[in-house]
Design goal:
alpha+beta; about 350 residues; 3-stranded antiparallel sheet; about 20% strand; binds zinc ion; BirA Bifunctional Protein, domain 2
């Protein structure tokens, strides 16, 4: 019986050594150490032996069992190590692979157009300045030659801010023109600035009106500036922005802070003036309002209107973007629909 045990142990050890994967270890354990395994069967047969022999063989059998269990544990640990090493080897990170692309954001179409317009004026010698969106009545209206009760105030439906003092004095600016006054208060001529920024009007929104929108204001003041300077600068701007062959048209218009005032149009880039749905068959597209700075505005900031003259202009980047990209509803810009914005 002792020989039998030695034989079983030798065979078990040999089989175990030959094993290469963790899963077959369990089969081995069942075959030798399990309830009906070979070693267990030997132990069961101990009962038929004489008492002396039973002790010796029993002790030996238990020794064999302990050794086999210890070997099994060792082998299992070793195999797990090998498997881990193999997995690491196979799943190794290749640092030379290109990374996964991170989705990049992009500029909002209005921001793109604002930057392009401002950039074009910068090339023409203008400086870009910004001003407050919460403004005083004085800068938004009064200093721009729009006193209280002036009918021109009707042109701008205004968001007033309740300051608790009863009087209407603080508002969300209805245009970026107040910066004309703020800039001239701070500097002496020559002045050449463009002012991009958000404006607010209390109006019902539709395809061409938003209550929040952008405006770019421009101002140039110097000695002996004339309407020719206005026309030269704005025509040059229109051509750089909309194409070198654009024809530019100036027609009379009214804005309280200029005299004379003009609307500036270009011949339609969709049809070259023949008429299409971009220009609504007019052949012309209005791109901005402009005019020579009103002498009363210059007096407000202590510029002598005899010595200094200038011109101002204002335009809506949303309108420019709508024309350029063929967008028919201004509200799309601010609906925050990523499917729309991804196109630009
Ligand atoms: Zn057209």
């Amino acid at each position: 019986m002792q020989d039998q045990l030695t034989g079983i142990e030798a065979q078990a050890v040999a089989e175990l050594r030959a094993m290469t994967d963790v899963r077959s270890l369990e089969e081995w354990r069942v075959a030798y150490l399990g309830r009906s395994g070979r070693l267990t069967q030997v132990l069961r047969g101990l009962g038929s032996l004489p008492i002396e022999e039973r002790r010796t063989v029993g002790a030996q059998a238990n020794e064999v069992k302990r050794r086999l269990e210890a070997l099994l544990e060792e082998k299992e640990a070793a195999l797990r190590q090998t498997e881990l090493a193999r997995e690491l080897e196979q799943g190794r990170i290749d640092v030379t692979l290109p990374g996964r692309p991170v989705p990049l954001g992009r500029l909002h179409p209005i921001t793109q157009v604002v930057r392009e317009i401002c950039g074009t004026f910068q090339q023409l010698g203008f400086q870009v300045v910004e001003g407050p969106e919460v403004e005083l009545d004085y800068y938004n209206f009064e200093a721009l030659n729009i006193p209280p009760e002036h009918p021109a105030r009707e042109m701008w439906d205004t968001f007033w801010i309740d300051t608790g003092e009863g009087e209407r004095n603080v508002l969300l600016r209805t245009h970026t023109s107040p910066m004309q006054i703020r800039v001239m208060e701070q500097t002496r001529p020559p002045v050449r600035v463009v002012v991009p920024g958000r404006c607010y009007r209390y109006e019902a929104t539709d395809a061409t009106h938003e209550s929040i929108f952008y405006q770019i204001e421009g101002l140039a003041v110097d000695r002996a500036m004339t309407m020719a300077d206005l026309k030269g600068v704005l025509a040059e701007f229109a051509r750089r922005m909309f194409g070198q062959n654009r024809r530019v048209r100036f027609r009379c218009d009214y804005f309280p802070f200029v005299e004379p005032g003009v609307e500036v149009s270009i011949d339609c880039f969709g049809c070259n003036g023949m008429g299409c749905n971009i220009c609504r068959d007019a052949g012309w597209i209005e791109i901005m309002g402009a005019g020579m700075v009103h002498p009363k505005v210059l007096e407000r900031v202590n510029y002598d209107p005899v010595e200094y003259t200038g011109f101002a202009f204002g335009m809506g980047p949303e309108r420019v973007a709508m024309l350029r990209y063929g967008i028919d509803d201004i509200r799309l810009f601010y609906a925050n629909d990523i499917r729309f914005l991804r196109q630009f």
